[in-house]
Amino acid sequence: MITEVKQYGATFKLDFSLVYWNSRLEHEHIRLVSQFQPGEAICDMFAGIGPFAIPAAQKGCFVFANDLNPHSIHYLKVNAKINKVEDNMIAYNMDAREFMRHLMTVSKSELDTDTQLTDILVAKTNEIPVVKGPSEDVTEPLETGTTYKEGLHYSATTAHTAAKRRPRFSREDKKANDDFTNGSSQRDGNFKKRIRGYKFPLPRISEHFDHVIMNLPAAALQFLDVFKGLLQRRYWKGSLPLLHCYFFLRSNETAESILQEVEATLQSKIPDPVFHRVRDVAPNKAMFRLSFRLPVESLVEEEKVKDGKPSESNL
Ligand SMILES: C[S@@+](CC[C@H](N)C(=O)[O-])C[C@H]1O[C@@H](n2cnc3c(N)ncnc32)[C@H](O)[C@@H]1O
């Protein structure tokens, strides 16, 4: 059933039977976005149809929004258009771990020569790791076993700077992204020929982003391992990103036990963690957000990174 809902001035079109939507998260969506500043670069690993991503883009942030469910990405793009924020957002249809690794894939020669233009590189893989297990807050991907949609590789100007400049991608740029992410013509040879060698200024996301949103409460904590050794010390500029990780707290768990789990995953102390109770979902279960800055120990030395992934010895 296709319907339209409004949240704090943004309009969202969606099909309830195909995508995740929970109007009880409205306050949390706006509460988190209120912490973002115009010009900041945001990575939304589990973006759904965009209830964080679209208000953030409306605020003047540049958003890299990802979801494994192709229907979510379809409506995310529809909603970006309805709310006129297409120029501030790029949509990806990948597993969240792959998405983060993909964003960090640095073309060293481009960075070393400090070029302002870059080729679009095509990321391909044949398997979709699927988050399994029942949860009232998880929309299971509908098309399991298909191939990833191809994504884009960004490595020209920083997302931070680019967002401040409010880049206006040309219609052709946007068409390239649309073709990549909507899956319609990406396998088409003419299309590949058309975009190969195509150049335009893009955010250098591998050098800096400000916030990461992880709203998959049933499993987001398990995705934190992707940040161990993800960012390269040599290329990273400015402060480390703030991670906003949602989770369910059960009666046999405490904030301390969750923090211990996070610290064990990242193998370092988390300074100044902030816990926020989002809502109660059952008598013995509440949804929380843990916000914290990625610890400096998670940075990796350049030579230990191969193809955007940390080597075994660095983990
Ligand atoms: C709880 S919903 C959150 C959606 C939106 N951010 C919100 O606040 O309403 C979680 C989303 O994660 C997506 N998802 C599930 N597993 C995923 C994975 N492995 N990688 C990326 N997205 C995934 C689902 O399709 C769903 O849209």
From TrEMBL:
<keyword id="KW-0949">S-adenosyl-L-methionine</keyword>
<feature type="compositionally biased region" description="Polar residues">
    <location>
        <begin position="179"/>
        <end position="188"/>
    </location>
</feature>
<protein>
    <submittedName>
        <fullName>tRNA (Guanine(37)-N1)-methyltransferase</fullName>
    </submittedName>
</protein>
<keyword id="KW-0963">Cytoplasm</keyword>
<dbReference type="InterPro" id="IPR030382">
    <property type="entry name" value="MeTrfase_TRM5/TYW2"/>
</dbReference>
<keyword id="KW-0819">tRNA processing</keyword>
<dbReference type="InterPro" id="IPR029063">
    <property type="entry name" value="SAM-dependent_MTases_sf"/>
</dbReference>
<dbReference type="InterPro" id="IPR056743">
    <property type="entry name" value="TRM5-TYW2-like_MTfase"/>
</dbReference>
<feature type="compositionally biased region" description="Basic and acidic residues">
    <location>
        <begin position="169"/>
        <end position="178"/>
    </location>
</feature>
<keyword id="KW-0489">Methyltransferase</keyword>
<dbReference type="GO" id="GO:0008175">
    <property type="term" value="F:tRNA methyltransferase activity"/>
</dbReference>
<dbReference type="GO" id="GO:0005737">
    <property type="term" value="C:cytoplasm"/>
</dbReference>
<feature type="region of interest" description="Disordered">
    <location>
        <begin position="158"/>
        <end position="188"/>
    </location>
</feature>
<keyword id="KW-0808">Transferase</keyword>
<dbReference type="Pfam" id="PF02475">
    <property type="entry name" value="TRM5-TYW2_MTfase"/>
</dbReference>
<feature type="domain" description="SAM-dependent methyltransferase TRM5/TYW2-type">
    <location>
        <begin position="1"/>
        <end position="296"/>
    </location>
</feature>
<dbReference type="GO" id="GO:0002939">
    <property type="term" value="P:tRNA N1-guanine methylation"/>
</dbReference>
